[in-house]
Design a protein that fits this description.
This protein is an alpha+beta fold. The protein contains three helices and four strands; from the N terminus they run E-H-E-H-E-E-H. A hairpin with a 2-residue loop joins strand 3 and strand 4.
Length: 77
C-alpha cells in the first residue's frame, strides 16, 4: 500500500493539498494511506523549508505548491 504524507502546519495550501491528494487516490481507486504531518521536526527531517510538502513512499515529490489531481495521479502511477 502506498503512503502519502502532507507536510505542513495546517495552512490553507496544506489543507488544499490534502484534499487534492485524497481526490487523486479516490480517482485511481488504489489503497493509499494519506497522513498529515504537522510536527516541525519531522517536516525538517525531509529537508522541507517551505510548506506544503508532498511525500510519497518516503520520497519528496513537491514543495511549496499544490500539484493538480492529474499531477498527483501521475506521481502515484
Amino acid at each position: 500500500m502506498k503512503r502519502i504524507e502532507i507536510l505542513g502546519t495546517g495552512c490553507a495550501k496544506c489543507e488544499k493539498l490534502a484534499a487534492t491528494a485524497k481526490e487523486a487516490v479516490a480517482e485511481l481507486g488504489i489503497e493509499c494511506e494519506v497522513e498529515k504531518v504537522t510536527d516541525i521536526q519531522k517536516i525538517m527531517a525531509y529537508g522541507i523549508m517551505m510548506t506544503p510538502g508532498l511525500v510519497i513512499d518516503g520520497e519528496v515529490k513537491a514543495v511549496g505548491k499544490v500539484p493538480s489531481v492529474a499531477e498527483i495521479k501521475e506521481m502515484l502511477g
